[in-house]
UniProtKB/TrEMBL annotation:
Database matches in PROSITE patterns: ROK
Domain of life (superkingdom): Bacteria
Keyword annotations of the record: Kinase, Transferase
Enzyme Commission number: 2.7.1.2
Gene Ontology MF, one: glucokinase activity
PANTHER family: BIFUNCTIONAL UDP-N-ACETYLGLUCOSAMINE 2-EPIMERASE_N-ACETYLMANNOSAMINE KINASE, ROK (REPRESSOR, ORF, KINASE) FAMILY
Protein name listed in UniProt: Glucokinase
Listed SUPFAM superfamilies: Actin-like ATPase domain (SSF53067)
Amino acid sequence: MNPDENTPFIPPSFVMGIDLGGTSVKLGLLYGDEVVARDQISTAHCEEPSDAFRQAREFAIDALRQNDATFDDLESVGLAMAGVIDEATATLMETANLHSWHGIGFHQELARVFEKPVAVINDANAAALGESSFGQHRTDSLSFLTLGTGIGGGIIVSGRPINGSHGCGGEIGHVTIDHGPDARRCGCGRDGHLEAYAGAAGIVQTAVELLEQSDQPSSLREARRSASRSASRSASRSAAVLTPECISDAAEAGDAIAIETVRRTGVHLGRAIAMLAHIADPSVVLLGGAVNFGGNRSRTGRRFLKTIHDEMARLSLVQTGSTVKIDFASLGNDAGMLGAAQHARQLARQRTLNCIKVRQHEKR
């Protein structure tokens, strides 16, 4: 991301990032590229968005004061949140959580509380923008996948997030990777989507199917029996049978069923990323979220990553398969907050540049 030599210099400024999640709200104040203050509040304590925004404003006032600045020095505020967001109104149209906040115009509400320029962005797009701007792989061409209960995605092209006409840009979890008659049903109600195979429940389903198809000894089989016994003694009968975490641990210990589960998950992701690579042509694809099989720190995580890359390369044009880098994300839970701040900064910077261009034109 080389700066344009003809672009006027704009000095560093204070911007704020807010990452609004189902359980917590992450807050960060940035000066330039440095996070100078951060905090976290519970979403459960916020009956409506304005409650969270008022607490965020108080945080900003205090953090600015501690950095020898005032609220007037805050340039803009960015908000990241999960779900499908109408770009024109920043209305939450669809989400897996925060159901009571459907239909609220978050842009208007955030601007009312802060009385500052504001920007609203989907959390996966925010994480992608955060990684591309502040992460280990800084680039203006990046795709990001969040692997967890579901699979989200964000696409950065020329340094900007792609939201799409309906707020669904980057929803790679809902690309179809299995068109067969026995394709799994996704949580969205459609068949064969990536999320049904590489989301947390899909990974567990793969392990269960492998256990049922084989008599091979496996620690997962005993874990499943133990969990079933616990569930039978539980009044709620809600004890978990298997989780991606225990599958990861078993694979790291050499369990063949677990290793094959991780391999198949990697193959599914590789197929989806091959499609993504031919459409967006990113220089880097990053994997974030809770399901990473230990990441680069573990043999299982590294093997998982290699499987993804090998399958992507097998299905891709040579130029794509040999150049796209796939890696784990580096910013962890800060990615969304940082991306929200960067999104606000980008829009504020564009407004400033537009004003400069108008003044330059008027002088001619």
